[in-house]
Every structure is written in structure tokens, then in C-alpha cells.
Amino acid sequence: MAKVLEIGDPAPDFTLPRDGAGSLGLKNFGGKKLVLYFYPKDNTSGCTAEAKDFNALLMEFAETNASVVGVSPDPVKSHDKFREKFELAFPLLSDEAKSMLEAYGVWVEKSMYGRKYMGVERTTFLIDPAGKIVNIWRKVKTTGHAAEVLKAVKAM
User: Fold this and answer.
1) pLDDT by position in tens, the chain (length 156)
2) pLDDT for the residue numbered 121
3) What's the rounded Cα separation, in Å, for the pair 43 and 32?
4) Angular region, 91: left φ>0, alpha ψ -120 to 50, beta rest
5) Which GO terms describe its molecular function (predicted)?
6) DSSP the chain
7) Could you tell me the CA-to-CA distances from 94 to 3, 18, 131 in Å, in that order?
8) At the top level of CATH, which class does the domain 30-155 belong to?
9) Which residues pair with 67 in a beta bridge?
């Protein structure tokens, strides 16, 4: 099992395929604050609400020199449709192999109606321009979450 990441730890490096085309990695955000949010699945009610909330505040994040990036195990094609449908203006990374999800400790055993399964624990990491984790929100409830993250970014 991967080490549980804590505030002050260096953010694990990554390079993943993104919506549209190409790939993005941690190195692409050097010198910027990075809001890295992990979500279970495109087009589900909670994930859609969370994406729309981050999207609505995107200009305010940009004003603080912060980028927002969403990550899920969905394929790039799904991200393309999700991003287009809701006019999302930030990148979505596809981690079908779950290597980044595991490195960040968000691929966990979950339980629903007594059935155990593996899935993404909705989690957000705030990473400083030097690549250190400065805040972590685990088991996120989507309502008001993007605004809470923005407040933390502004306080940096």
C-alpha cells in the first residue's frame, strides 16, 4: 500500500494523457499553484457539480496564479465529452492504469450496500509552486468545496 501523503510532502510526479490531445505532468505547473482534484466518474451528479463549481471560479483561481486540474480513471474520450458538454475550461487527466491515483493514495476500497469495491476517494490536493503539498481535502463533499479551496489558495 502506498504511503499516505501529508501536508509538507513533495507531490508525486506524474504525466498522464489529457482531454483533447497530448499529456500533462507535474512539471508543466512549475512556478504555479496547482489544485489537483480527484473524482470518481465523468457525468455523475456529484462529479458534474464539482467540475461546474471549479469551472465557475476558474478566473479567480487564475488571478492567484493557480491552475485547476481534474483526474479520474475515465478514458480520454469520456473526458472529451464531459468537458465539451459542460464547457469546462480546465484540463482533465485520464488515469486508466490508476498509477497516479495510487501514488496520491486516492484509489481505495469503498463499500456500498455491503459490497466492497475499489474506487476513487474524492480528494483535492493544493500544491505550491515548488511542488510541495500545502493542503489536502479528503472525502470531499462537493457543495461549497471549490469556494473553500479558492479561499485556501488566496491565503497562500
Assistant:
1) 456 889 999 999 999 999 888 899 999 988 899 999 999 888 887 788 889 999 999 999 999 999 999 999 999 999 899 999 999 999 999 999 999 998 998 887 777 788 887 878 889 999 999 999 999 998 888 888 899 999 999 988
2) 87
3) 29
4) beta
5) thioredoxin peroxidase activity
6) -PPPP-TTSBPPP-EEEBSSSSEEEGGGGTTSEEEEEE-S-TTSHHHHHHHHHHHHTHHHHHHTTEEEEEEESS-HHHHHHHHHHTT--S-EEE-TT-HHHHHTT-EEEEEETTEEEEEE--EEEEE-TTSBEEEEE-S--STTHHHHHHHHHHH-
7) 22, 6, 21
8) alpha beta
9) 34
Map grid coordinates 491552475 to a residue.
Answer: 67
Residue 24: phi, psi to the nearest 5? -135, 145
Q: Where are the domains of the chain?
A: 30-155
C-alpha cell at 139: 472525502
Give me the active site residues, please. Answer: 47
